[in-house]
Design goal:
The protein is an alpha/beta fold. It has 10 helices and 11 strands. The chain has a 6-stranded mixed sheet. This is Extracellular solute-binding protein.
């Protein structure tokens, strides 16, 4: 689980493959801020370089840390494109007016349920919230019927989540969009009463600290005696991509997003070690109101419920 404002940016990873030369006058390098799994982002970058001759510099970090950096950099950002694990970070940057309109052909590659009406970003992979649990502590019959059940009294002290992490905040943002603020507020109060805030719920379960935890399905690595249980009432969360308005290599960045979301990029995703689902033929619907995502309100509701401090560290 990535923690809220988590890992610091690392040194740029330059993926130069010596592919065919770029056409005269074309960009030969783009900078991509990436919160994606490094192996998947590198595979996409290698594939794009092989296909176009354009090198990709990946600058790695956590969703919210990179969103904050982009907002701070504004028009001075060196980034041409932005890849995230969760959609709320994209919405934060979009709300700051920093994202370019994507090419119509790129948007048309992605089903409408995996992109907002604004056309400022697209989904590039799909993730689903899930419950990781200790098989020695919980039987199949004892598992929660759904995400909402975790706020009920029988789950008090039995599960945890990364409240400061972008993954859990994406779950809250999706619930807010799908079910509205009142139900979300009530659910969060139950979460506050029942759950423990931990950096890595999966490891806490594996260590016997708690019986279960909320994670994204693709983060499960199967440590110890853990197993994964899906939430039938939870909507999928979307990993996304966007082009920065201030980027110096607009055309190349547009080509990169089109590659990642297109047949070649989605084939790379399917062949990767990532457990994410491709946006083409994904197995469950995302929230149909992606344009209505409100990460700022989700954060406020979490703060009201006592899951986040009044001035969360960013």
């Amino acid at each position: 689980m990535r923690s809220y404002g988590g890992k610091a940016l690392v040194a740029a990873i330059v993926l130069a493959l010596g592919a065919c030369a770029s056409p005269p006058g074309a960009a030969d390098t783009i900078v991509v801020y990436s919160a994606q799994e490094q192996a998947l982002a590198q595979a996409w970058a290698r594939g794009f370089t092989t296909d176009t001759g354009i090198e990709v510099i990946l600058r790695d970090g956590a969703d919210l840390a990179l969103a904050d950096r982009l907002i701070a950099e504004g028009a001075e950002t060196p980034a041409d494109a932005f890849l995230t694990e969760n959609a709320p970070a994209l919405d934060l940057v979009a709300d700051a007016g920093l994202l370019a309109d994507l090419d119509r052909a790129t948007l048309d590659q992605v089903p409408s349920r995996y992109r907002p009406p604004s056309g400022r970003w697209i989904g590039v992979a799909v993730r689903t919230p899930a419950f990781v649990y200790d098989t020695a502590e919980l039987s199949q019959a004892e598992l929660p019927a759904g995400l909402l059940e975790l706020a009920q009294p029988q789950w008090q002290g039995r599960w945890g989540a990364g409240f400061f992490g972008a993954d859990f905040q994406a779950v809250v943002t999706g619930l807010l969009a799908a079910r509205g603020p009142e139900l979300t507020r009530t659910w969060l109060r139950g979460v506050r009463a029942n759950a423990t805030s931990v950096l890595d719920p999966q490891q806490a379960v594996a260590d016997g600290i708690m019986a279960g935890g909320v994670i994204s399905h693709d983060d499960w690595t199967g440590p110890g005696r853990t197993a994964l249980h899906p939430f039938p009432d939870a909507t999928a969360t979307v990993s996304g991509g966007a082009v920065l308005r201030a980027g110096e290599q607009q055309r190349a960045a547009q080509r990169f997003l089109a590659f990642v979301a297109g047949p070649q990029g989605q084939t790379i995703l399917r062949a990767s070690t990532s457990a994410k689902y491709p946006v083409i033929a994904a197995p469950m619907p995302s929230d149909p109101r992606l344009g209505a995502l409100d990460p700022a309100l989700a954060t406020r509701l979490m703060t009201e419920a006592g899951l986040l401090p009044a001035a969360p560290p960013r």
